[in-house]
Design goal:
single chain, 404 residues, alpha+beta, Methylamine Dehydrogenase, Chain H, 2 domains, four-stranded antiparallel β-sheet, 3 helices, 28 strands, elongated
Length: 404
Amino acid sequence: MTSSAVHAGRLGRVRFGRSLALALALSISLIAAFPASGLGQEAPKSYKKWYFGVGGALLVGVPVYLFASDRGLGNSACSSQGCVTALAALIGGAIGFMIGAEKDRSYVRRMAAGPTLDYEYHNVPLDLVPDRITKFPGGAAVVGVGGVRIVTEDGTVHPRGRGVRGIDDVAVIPDLDLLVLSTYSNLIGFAVHDDSAQGHVIDERGGGALEVFQSDLAVAGLDSLRLIRFRRDGTDIDTETLAQVASSGYVTDMAFSGFGRLGWVLMENRLASYNASFEKIGEVELPAAGRAVRARGSRLAVAAGTNGVFVVDVRDPAAPRVVQRYTGVKFAYAADLDGDRLYVAAGPEGVAVVDISGDEPKVIGVARRTKFASDVIISGAGEAWILDREAQTVQIVDLGVESR
């Protein structure tokens, strides 16, 4: 090898090193000028914007340097190999920084609700995209895209309603071993525990939201509320309509409270109470429309999406009142209560556990071992059943948080 060739090789390596150093310096200077808006000084720290920025500069700058040459670049203002490399690295660094910054903001949003809880859980695959969960003694019924799954407390899964389209809600009447699915056109009944049982149409009027009122079933239709009593004779199920009232609005959800043995009907931003005869007792107008309601003792939890969760005192069912509001998550999909603990399913943020014993809600911690928490319900044993829509599982967990 001639001395001129050796000299040219050394010169090439020097030029490569200088170009790369210049590219990195310029890209870091440029991405440092981008404002990290929305992160906040007290927010959890994440540095993906820097990693992605430098990575983008290298990913774009190095190939450009290797494939570019001083020959054939023309007489433009930036015609040298080093200049072209630096410019490419600047562009790659800026793009990488913006991608990383969005990941940082996503991390901050996920961590903003509170500290992470440490807990163990039993993960049960469902083989469907779950949406809502209904608890009953001995297990739970999960409805979603693909039918219904009965999940027993030991984690055994029994499919129901495969092929049934447009399932709106489910209810379980344990005394009759009866699972009821509501669709737009009818109500369909299945046995809860008998795997060999087939579904049967048990009412030819469709419905939306369902809720068990003691041992009867409340059904919300398009224009009315019905209270139905079921009687089983072997495999045959007879129905009797005990009461029917006109609905004054679209029913989003219903809940039955053992406190006063009252049913609560959520109609967008109105929450009304009904007695066992389906006579209206009282009503409260909420600050915003709700999407789900759960009753525990003398309080209700109303999940209201971007408006958080409303805690409603129902000791006087004729005049219920909102006593607290929790807005610490971006979107509240569902909520449940256990004593002075509020549990909020917040999608990608996990499940927030909130102390509501004081005048203002205080976050205890957040269960984050889910990809997308779409619903949460607390069982009588103190366990939390959490639906993970993205992972298509239900988590049966003890979060280690005592009720008060």
